[in-house]
Amino acid sequence: MLHLPILRFGEPYTSLEVDEVTHFLTGEPIARVSRANGGLIQRDMRKANRAREALRAIPIDELIARVGRAGELYMTARLPMGDGMQTADEFAHAQSASTGLPERMCRANMKKNAFVLGEMRSVLTSLTRGLDFDVLATGHGVERDVPISYQAQSPVLGLVLPSNSPGVHTLWLPIIPLQIGLVLKPGPQEPWTPYRMASAFFEAGIPREAIAIYPGHADVGGAVLDACARSLIFGGTATVDRYRGDPRVQAHGPGFSKILLGDDQVDQWERHLDMMVESVFINSGRGCINASGIWASRHTREIADAIAQRLAAIRPLPPADPEASLAAFTVPGVADAISNAIDAELKVPGVTDVTAAYRQGGRLVKEGKADYLLPTVLHASNPGVPVAKQEYMFPFVTVVECPQSAMLDAIGPTLVCTAITCDETFRRRLLDAVHIDRLNLGPVPTSRLNWLQPHEGNIVEFLFRARAFQTAPLQ
Amino acid sequence: MNWHFDPASGSPFWLERAKTLGWDPRREIRTFADLRRFGGFEDEWLRGGPVQRWVPRGLAGKPVYVFETGGTTGIPKTRINVDDFRIDYELFSTTLPDEHFPKGANWLMLGPSGPRRLRLAVEHLAQYRGGICFCVDLDPRWVIKLIKNGWTEHLHAYRDHVIDQAVTVLSANHDIRCMFTTPKLLEALALRLESMGSTIRKSGISGIFCGGTEFTPQWNRFAHEELLDGAYMTPTYGNTLMGLAASAPTGPANGYKITYHAPQPRAVIEVVDFEDADRVVEYGATGRVKLTTLTKEFFMPGFLERDEGEREPPCDRFPWDGVSGVRPYRAFASTTTVGVY
Predict the structure, then answer these.
(1) Which of A132, A168, A347, B43 is the most exposed place for a label (fewest CB within 10 A)?
(2) Are strands A79-81 and A29-34 parallel, antiparallel or unpaired?
(3) How far is the C-alpha of B233 from the C-alpha of B210, rounded, in Å?
(4) What are A249's strand-pairing partners?
(5) Averaged over B299-310, what is the pLDDT?
């Protein structure tokens, strides 16, 4: 069986404590993962500056070329995985086995990661708004005849990663070419991407001392946040609330992404059905960018009914089946808890389960050790019901009836908003709405991202501080 | 049994309890196994007063201490003490190697004091070995509140405040060579000293008696390899109700496994089946820790601790059963804030 050691800035370290990663269907162990202790991280942070120095010895242009090669290796090569080796197919198989995500979705997420690596120059140009990379490397420069300075706020970026969707790794891939080291705490069911990506980076010539990986429990996540001056953490609403206002931490939580249909377009809602279904269903609804709400002032029952008909036939398939589109829940009890929560939501007047009419049996399906939740479409007759702003980690959407004039006040925080409207007043209000992060005007699925644009906080602005800088010649 | 159930010497609690048993413990308890007849000792009996009901009449007139355990929320458990903590720590003293814990050396007690037994006990240990004990306090109940409320900044500030005091005492030429502390505070102290270009050993410490919270083999190894700089550390498992369980020798040869042995015959640890507390599990098997305390001051048969672990066989130094891998009992683990200080 594979063993994944702790990686202490490139140095493998085998812990006396290991956690097993198991197959979600059979319960059989797939890998043993060394468990870090918090003190290890605190102590290793003495080497954080060395990580940045090793990267600064390589020009950003060269790092961009190397991560590009790493992307090719990540997609195609047989790479070290702990004390063994793993092909790309074996990687997708293992990732599917521990996360419950169908293999074809694992491969799709690999493509996303590889795309970002391959397009790194464009990604960085966009994230830095066209800044000369030398300014980041040296800390200062001149732009339009004005001196400018960008100061890195930390030699390393800490990441407390989730297990739900391997696509989130795209967020940290630009860090290495920015000459900042990585301190990764993998999600418990998804250690695979951090390790494979680190191997691909090393094979492509990224210095080993630039990357640390600390698998472990919650205390390890806490230690990463304590030890790194800048960190990203992924979690639920409680996590986001806890770190709100903390300049050291960028917390990524539920997206509560939504589609809004304006009064001027809602009568043609059928034109946008494919877009709505894709937004809800792609990647098994696991991402923060999947739509969990569709809001309109009329036709909401027909919209809910049409989406429900499209999704009602979806059934769990074996993870290697090329048609598999539904991910399993691999943590015992989670699917039951979500299903029970939805049942409780349905007791609120004005809320109905539209999918229930189109399928036999309940939404919770148990197959072996795996639990599945079948796609679920609710209808809410008013925006005041709690489920109107709820998100779950499977294809779940509430179609909410709400007057257009009340929509923006009622939707709450929204990571991705796709608005279907040509009403200039409404478009202006949408552009001004500060609780909307990414805004799509027009029929763009919420799940379809332009990778050249920042996602939920610009990572460059988080890591670098623009400051005043002047020089004068010395006699 | 004669002492605890004789109306002239027993405590009001046990004398009252005896009236409800329907049998006479003085006649019918002949062996350790017979203690099962008392059934389980209930946690709640130790919460709330009057505390005098636990003082054996035979000890009337002696100065009585009360020590608490738990108490972050609600009423803590209490245990009365006259001399037990001194006896327990004198016995523990015999397990400390003199080359690392030199007789006459001064000590630093870096950990919880307040209503706990630790401060007085460690101070007595230092005095018993001919030294003087310096103390730095830590309030674990406040630490738990900081954690539960997510006040991380305050948590770090409080930790730094405690470590600041420890570093100051260690730098003040008091010839402190021995220390009691908890794993978390030892880690914080070692990292602070390292950031100052020093180490635990360079600060003068040659022997550390460490305990108070969960102690894993990995952390034990990490401490030995990266924190102690050659200082000697002995892990312990103890609490107000038991006394102090010393550990058998540990190191790379046994994978840094920590096995504790209770201070028999004053206290006995058994590892029992999760479902049947009267059944001791096989050697190597996992079960819940069951504690029986049998001193003149305190009789507590069959108390189920909030910990679990693996049953270990006797060893040369401790010819009776031990327990390894001690960790929070799984049924409570998710609701307990552990390892906080």
Answers:
(1) A347
(2) unpaired
(3) 7
(4) A231
(5) 93
Res B333: pLDDT: 59
- pLDDT for B335 beyond 60: no
Per-residue pLDDT, averaged over B131-140, amounts to 95
The least confident of A30-34, A291-295, B209-213 is B209-213
From residue A203, give the alpha-carbon distance in Å to each of A4, A110, A142, A173: 17, 18, 35, 16
Q: Write out chain B residues lying below 8 Å of A39, CB-based.
A: 187, 191, 219, 222, 226-227
Phi/psi class of residue A297: alpha, beta or left (left: φ > 0; alpha: ψ in -120 to 50)? alpha
pLDDT of A242 strictly over 90: no
Task: Give the per-residue pLDDT at B340.
Answer: 47
DSSP B280: B
DSSP 8-state symbol, B213: S
Residue owning tokens 């001027």:
A264
Q: Is the pLDDT of residue B140 over 80?
A: yes
Q: Do residue B222 and residue A37 have CB atoms under 8 angstroms apart?
A: yes
What mean pLDDT is reported for chain B?
Answer: 91
Q: Which residues on adjacent β-strands are paired with residue A34?
A: A18
Contact (Cβ atoms closer than 8 angstroms) between residue A419 and residue A436? no
With a CB cutoff of 8 Å and minimum separation 6, the contacts of A64 are: A120, A121, A124, A177
**Rg of chain B on CA atoms, in Å:** 20
Interface contact flag, A37 B152, Cβ < 8 Å: no
Mean pLDDT to the nearest integer, B153-173: 95
| Among A205, A156, A204, A209, CA closest to A179 | A156
Q: Are A335 and A329 in contact (CB under 8 A)?
A: yes
Q: Is B258 exposed, middle or buried (0-12, 13-18, 19+ CB in 10 A)?
A: buried
Per cent of chain B over pLDDT 70 is 96
Question: What are A444's two structure tokens?
Answer: 């763009």
Measure the CA–CA gap between B338 and B332, rounded to whole angstroms.
Answer: 11
CB atoms within 10 A of CB B210: 23
CATH tag for A2-253+456-467 (out of 3.40.50.1260, 1.10.12.10, 3.30.930.10, 3.40.605.10): 3.40.605.10
Tell me the C-alpha distance between A120 and B144, whole Å: 45
Q: Is B150's CB within 8 Å of A37's CB?
A: no
On the question of a cis peptide bond just before residue B265, with omega within 30 degrees of 0, the verdict is yes
β-pair type (B77-81, A6-8): unpaired
3-state secondary structure of B183: helix
Residue A456 pLDDT level (bands cut at 50, 70, 90): low
The runs of H, that is alpha helices, within A182-287 are 192-203, 218-227, 237-243, 273-281
Burial of B90 (0-12, 13-18, 19+ CB in 10 A): middle
DSSP β-ladder status, B259-261 and B243-247: antiparallel
CA distances from A45 to A271, A386, B209 (A): 54, 43, 27
Query: If you average pLDDT over every residue of chain A, what do you get?
Result: 93
Instruction: Return d(Cα B314, Cα A246) in angstroms, integer.
Output: 52
8 Å CB contact between A327 and A316: no
SS3 for B99? Answer: coil
Give the mean pLDDT of A371-376: 95
Interface of B with A in 311-340 (CB under 8 A): 339
**C-alpha to C-alpha distance for A467 and A465, rounded to whole angstroms:** 6
Please give the CATH number for the structural domain made up of A257-441: 3.40.309.10
ipTM of this complex: 0.85
Percent of chain A as helix, strand, coil, to the nearest 5: 40, 25, 35
Domains and CATH numbers, chain B: 63-333 (3.40.50.12780)
Query: Which of A17, A40, A42 is nearest residue B216 as measured by Cβ atoms?
Result: A17
Q: What whole-number distance in Å separates Cα of residue A357 and Cα of residue A309?
A: 9
CB contact under 8 A, B218 and A226: no
Q: Which residue of A has its CA nearest to B153?
A: A226
